[in-house]
Amino acid sequence: MPELPEVETVRASLARDLIGKKVKSAAVTNGRVVRRHKTAKEFRMAIEGHTIKSAQRLGKNLIFGLENGTHLVVHLGMSGQLLRAKGPKDLKPKHTHVVFSFVQGGELRYVDPRTFGELYVSTPPTDPSEVEISKFARLSIGGDGLGLRREIPELAHLGIDPFEDQIGWDRFAAILRSRSTSLKVVLTDQDIIAGLGNIYADETLFASGLRYDRSAETLSTIEIRRLHRAITEILTNAIKHGGTTLDDEQFVDPDGKPGSYQQYLQVYGREGQPCLQCRLPISRVMVRQRSTFFCEKCQS
Ligand SMILES: [Zn+2]
Q1: What is the pLDDT of residues 223-233, one digit of tens each?
Q2: How confident is the model over 52-73, as a mean pLDDT?
Q3: How far is the CA of 274 from the centre of ligand 1 (A)?
Q4: Is residue 249 annotated as part of the catalytic site, yes or no?
Q5: Distance 276 CA to ligand 1 centre (A)
Q6: Which domains does the chain have, with CATH numbers?
Q7: Average pLDDT over every residue of 112-128
Q8: For the chain, percent of residues with pLDDT exceeding 70
């Protein structure tokens, strides 16, 4: 599943050529991906004829601001891809569900084999100050995140985004100390921290020497600072490498190019292989039906 670094890779790529483009048409061939709208036509009408003014991200959501104040929100789900094409003559990949064409030329296709992803156009509320924002996100002291949540009520539930919200380690500590659940569950809960998923939660826990099943409230100040730093460093590095593309997953950027951060993974997907720190084999357990990879010796 695309996580923060993969979604950010897509955002940065699209920001380069989508801003300023006017949507000529949005052809939907699978209504499931626009399921928040009553009909595919409603989605089409909300976007056709509008110009893209900005490309932002909150957690795993891509947000394209339109000139009329509404936003096109895209969540890639498990296997969604946004792929650019020169025009209708370019071969359409299997599972293409939406095709945007632009007045200035070119196309953007939404492809999603498993169709867990979605696209919708969100209209800002009459009084954005009345939108109820996640108590975790409210700890933010700056950045674009709070404004985006007020403009897009569908995203108001999201917890803190490590990049869009400014939050120091002390506020991060307050969040962890209020949770008695395991670290893995806290890190991957989008309503607490938005953007981390299975891969980067395992990697940040390994980098900070913490076991997935430690109760969040038991962390010492030093451990919290280590985890806080690991989240920023690992996500920054993964963005630099265009995200992670694994054999069984299909993450590619809008040009169809895979990421390269998989070369730097320390624990994720490495069950039975020697730990890069201590040589002991990496363990794998199931947490809430998903694999968790860790080192018995290096993480406590
Ligand atoms: Zn180890």
Answers
A1: 999 999 999 99
A2: 98
A3: 8
A4: no
A5: 7
A6: 4-123 (3.20.190.10), 169-294 (1.10.8.50)
A7: 96
A8: 100
| Spatial distance between the Cα atoms of 269 and 271, rounded to a whole number of angstroms | 6
Count of alpha carbons within 13 angstroms of residue 87, beta-carbon side? 4
Q: Is 88 a catalytic residue?
A: no
Average pLDDT over residues 39-44: 98
Does the pLDDT of residue 250 top 90, yes or no? no
Burial track 84-94 (b if 16+ CB lie within 10 A, e otherwise)? bbeeeeeeeee
**Which residue in 11, 44, 60, 149 is the catalytic one?**
60
Whether this prediction's pTM lies above 0.85 is answered by: yes
**If you measure from the C-alpha of residue 210 to the centroid of ligand 1, how many angstroms do you get, rounded to a whole number?**
11
- Answer left, alpha or beta for residue 175, where phi above 0 means left and psi between -120 and 50 means alpha: alpha
Q: Indicate the pLDDT class of residue 247, thresholds 50, 70 and 90.
A: confident
Q: Region 121-145: what's the mean pLDDT? A: 93
CA distances in angstroms from 144 to 75, 86, 140, 287, listed in the order given: 18, 32, 10, 33
Measure Cα distances from 97 to 83, 108, 153, 245, 283 in Å.
12, 11, 25, 22, 38
Q: What pLDDT is attached to residue 249?
A: 64
* 53 a catalytic residue: no
Q: What are 100's strand-pairing partners?
A: 26, 108
Q: Catalytic residue at 290?
A: yes
Both structure tokens of 245:
């593309």
